[in-house]
Amino acid sequence: MKKGIIVGAGIAGIAAAIRMAKKGYAVEVFEANAYPGGKLSAFSLGEYRFDAGPSLFTMPHFVDELFHLCGENPKEHFNYKKKDIACNYFWEDGTTLTAYGDKEQFLGEVEKKLGVPSASVKKYLDRAKRKYDLTENLFLRQSLHRLKTYLSFDTLKAIFQINTMEINRSLNQINEAQLQSPHLVQYFNRYATYNGSSPYQTPGIMTLVQHLESHYGTFVPKGGMVQISQSLFELAKRQGVRFQFNQKVEQILVEKKKAKGVIVHGKPHFSDWVISNMDIFPTYKKLLPKHKMPFNVKREERSSSAIIFYWGMAQKFPSLDLHNIFFSDDYQSEFKAIFQEHSLSDDPTVYVNITSKDVPEDAPSYGENWFVMVNTPADYGQDWAALTEQLKQRVIKKLNRILDVDFSSLIEEEEIMTPPQIQMKTQSHLGALYGASSNNKMAAFLRHPNFKTSISNLFFCGGSVHPGGGIPLCLLSAKIATGQIS
Ligand code: FAD
């Protein structure tokens, strides 16, 4: 039986393992941590349970697809429900907005709260849909680095309709031109953060991200986000995949321009192919030291990172929902700070996710588990201890002001994650959440391919390579990478 090795049990590594086991290979996954899932993992603090990383789940059919591939019914292993309310929004001037999952209800809410006619927003969302339909096949479903991709009808169609994609103006410029309310512009600008980019730099094609959310909806997995990685980990084991935890790969063995296996704790492990799910930057730097790091990988701007406060709160907040955003009054400065100055904004946008709203067992009966996230720059050597303390005070002041409660007295458990810790736990270069940013309009083409032309039998999957970061794209990267191996 032919054998393959995967470096890392992030969500893309697990998905790649399932696909390759299904193709009939003996698959072994080496994972540096003691647990699977990488960024998609969970932990407990006293009586509070927290998902450590992602909290927004879109396109669950990509998870289901892996169960179907293995002839299993996903419902027997992994369940989720569509959310009626995607998120609640709060502005400092007292404006609030509920982003209903139902499109008509959402359009009605925008008209009522922000005074923007439904017809304008509908036209804007229809444009976003056209961009998604034109580019889905080209950018998300196949390698951008194979000639045959460019010879297809879909590609030609996309090229002929390049103007529809609005790549020559920023997302913010498109939003300002097409939406009448500054609050609505800010609301739609926020989607740039879904891949760690700035709305003032990322191109207008990014409105397709909001199409995904408004069209397909957002979902909550039963048992928390961690069930995505956990249920796929169990599926992989049922397919015969062998996981080796606490086993950090030190090098990828390359002989005569062919990947031959890996070295772990100084010992060689041989295989017919290797897939690296490690961030592409350290894959080159640490695992392939004799091979030149491609120019794009070296100089690509990293996506934003985050500081996360995991707070066990000794009080319930009936006015809040599962997902809540407290907007910054000066959104433009916030992104200037993150991407140009590598610093924190004085008035950050604060994202609060409370899973105990949906799963009461995630917190004691009197409290709630707050995942409080603020976007930050990646780690360029800032003094994170000082910045975190400063940020905590700003966040508490903002929440006190908007919700009219004394927060500091309610926090009974606390854990904090900073960009250097994200890098330490998952090897993500500079602690970026989504690999490279999409601030450059050519970003999709600059991302590293899922294979390496000069080394046969070496492949790549995960958020730092094509097609990019976030759970759905990571799952697609595993599909594209394994599609290169016959
Ligand atoms: P990773 O999760 O990066 O895992 C890589 C794995 O490889 C790790 O387990 C690591 O230990 C292992 N590894 C690395 N090097 C080695 C080595 N040398 N040897 C062995 N093992 C190694 N996405 C969304 O879709 N929705 C969200 O709401 C969202 N929010 C986020 C919030 C936060 C705080 C973070 C951190 C991320 C968020 N993301 C979100 C992004 C999403 O989590 C990632 O894009 C995705 O999980 C990355 O998966 P991956 O397969 O690239 O691997």
Helices and strands, with pairings:
Blueprint: E1 3-7, H1 11-22, E2 26-30, E3 42-45, E4 48-51, H2 61-69, E5 80-82, E6 85-90, E7 96-100, H3 103-114, H4 118-140, H5 147-150, H6 153-160, H7 171-178, H8 182-189, H9 207-216, E8 219-221, H10 226-238, E9 242-244, E10 249-255, E11 258-264, E12 267-270, E13 273-276, H11 280-287, H12 295-299, E14 305-313, E15 323-326, H13 331-341, E16 350-354, E17 368-376, H14 384-403, E18 411-417, H15 419-426, H16 443-446, E19 458-460, H17 471-483
Parallel strand pairs: 1-2, 1-13, 2-9, 6-15, 13-19
Antiparallel strand pairs: 3-4, 5-8, 6-7, 10-11, 11-12, 14-17, 14-18, 15-16, 16-17
Helix pairs in contact: 1-10, 1-17, 3-4, 4-6, 4-9, 7-8
The chain binds flavin-adenine dinucleotide.
Flavin-adenine dinucleotide binds at residues 7-13, 30-33, 38-40, 53-56, 248-249, 277-278, 306, 308, 422, 426-428, 433-434, 462-463, 469-471, 474.
Key structural traits:
486 residues; alpha/beta; seven-stranded mixed beta sheet; five-stranded parallel beta sheet; 17 helices; 19 strands; globular; binds flavin-adenine dinucleotide
